């Protein structure tokens, strides 16, 4: 049921606070320690892990990109993110000390399943992050962390993506707990920050009209997306949503790459979304991304900026600002991606396209 929304996708975008909240629910024991759903991996094995390799496709792989930033920061374990279809045909350096994390909404993506088997053959343990109960990948995994996003009907992934990111945060904190990277009270603090996210996502949804108006009037056939740090995978996801739903050319870039090529694409009128890191971050990324906005604005770009509430620095260079509530940097993708989802959904709908069933795409890709 679409619950009063025009499309499943609209509904699923609006289900996101709940998808994140449900994914966080019931993950702690009476003592407040994190627990995974189905763990068939000994804690001693998890303590010995010296590398994590995330395997996934499409949007799920972007969730893996976000996970890399969080897990490396929290657990000091190197994390690689690899597209499952590349991983399975390489000769990857994987062994008993590698934890392979498969991320998949459907649990049936053929390439991801084959990557899981490829890893297990080499002795790696596989933990999967899956939305669909009873599917194949969790059955073949050594551990499962379910995302509780509920069934996702629209072909393009939205709420499953936010739930996947949330699950990777839980995994990161769980590993930090097991391996002693963090004190219990530090983990409790991170969990409290996470539990505050559903309300903040709701705030972004409540402000959705601004981005919908911009989407309806967008007549460009190319849109660029720039992001840095965790904003980079958000930029990639924003571009993917637009390609899938609106069939227009869209590309996401790491903002630091701008000078190394992509800035050549910027001509007068070119719409560019920029995901701006929090000004409260410890490093200088905020000012670097502001400089990027200045550079593209000087070349005539139409700058569509996603920024944190109260960030005055963006205003002089932004044609539009889509404000999101304050959040810890590592958790911010749960907020910054939402305006991009709304943008793609609204633009495609305004062009009369079927956002729930985009052409040429299937909900789960069970063939190569
Ligand atoms: C994008 C999208 C796809 C899937 C990809 C993986 O909107 O839906 O890119 O994310 O096909 O699917 P799962 O997560 O089922 O393995």
UniProtKB/TrEMBL annotation:
Entry GO terms, CC: cytosol
Compartments in which it is found: Cytoplasm
Role noted for this protein: Catalyzes the first step in hexosamine metabolism, converting fructose-6P into glucosamine-6P using glutamine as a nitrogen source.
EC numbers, comma separated: 2.6.1.16
Name under which the protein is recorded: Glutamine--fructose-6-phosphate aminotransferase [isomerizing]
Active site: 363
Protein encoded by which gene: glmS
Domain of life, source organism: Bacteria
Keyword Cell membrane: no
Membrane-spanning intervals of the chain: none
Single GO molecular function: carbohydrate derivative binding
GO biological process: carbohydrate metabolic process; fructose 6-phosphate metabolic process; protein N-linked glycosylation; UDP-N-acetylglucosamine metabolic process
Domain SIS: 41-181, 213-358
Species name: Luteimicrobium xylanilyticum
Catalyzed reactions: D-fructose 6-phosphate + L-glutamine = D-glucosamine 6-phosphate + L-glutamate
Record text on subunit structure and interactions: Homodimer.
UniProt keyword annotations, A-Z: Aminotransferase, Cytoplasm, Glutamine amidotransferase, Repeat, Transferase
């Amino acid at each position: 049921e679409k619950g009063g929304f025009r499309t499943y996708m609209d509904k699923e975008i609006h289900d996101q606070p709940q998808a994140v909240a449900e994914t966080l629910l019931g993950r702690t024991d009476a003592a407040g320690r994190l627990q995974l759903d189905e763990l068939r991996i000994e804690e001693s094995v998890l303590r010995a892990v010296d590398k994590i390799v995330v395997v996934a496709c499409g949007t799920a792989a972007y969730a893996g990109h976000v996970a890399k930033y969080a897990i490396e920061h929290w657990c000091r374990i190197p994390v690689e993110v690899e597209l499952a279809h590349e991983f399975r045909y390489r000769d990857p350096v994987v062994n008993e000390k590698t934890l392979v994390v498969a991320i998949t909404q459907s649990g049936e993506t053929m390439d991801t399943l084959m990557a899981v088997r490829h890893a297990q053959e080499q002795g790696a343990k596989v933990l999967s992050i899956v939305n669909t109960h009873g599917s194949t990948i969790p059955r073949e995994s050594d551990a499962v962390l379910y995302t509780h996003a509920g069934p996702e009907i629209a072909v393009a992934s939205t709420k499953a993506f936010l739930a996947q990111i949330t699950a990777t945060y839980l995994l990161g904190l769980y590993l930090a707990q097991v391996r002693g990277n963090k004190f219990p009270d530090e983990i409790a603090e991170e969990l409290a920050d996470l539990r505050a996210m559903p309300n903040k996502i709701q705030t972004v949804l409540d402000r959705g009209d601004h981005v919908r108006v911009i989407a309806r009037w967008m007549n460009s056939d190319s849109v660029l997306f720039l992001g840095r740090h965790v904003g980079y995978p958000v930029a990639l996801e924003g571009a993917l949503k637009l390609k899938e739903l609106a069939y227009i050319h869209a590309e996401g870039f790491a903002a630091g790459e701008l000078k190394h090529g992509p800035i050549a694409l910027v001509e007068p009128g070119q719409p560019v979304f920029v995901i701006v890191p929090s000004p409260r971050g410890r490093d200088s990324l905020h000012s670097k991304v502001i400089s990027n906005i200045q550079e593209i604005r000087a070349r005539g770009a139409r700058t569509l900026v996603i920024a944190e509430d109260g960030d005055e620095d963006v205003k002089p260079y932004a044609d539009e600002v889509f404000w999101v509530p304050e959040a810890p940097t590592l958790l911010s993708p749960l907020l910054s991606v939402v305006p991009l989802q709304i943008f793609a959904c609204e633009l495609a709908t305004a062009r009369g396209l079927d956002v729930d069933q985009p052409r040429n795409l299937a909900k789960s890709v069970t063939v190569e």
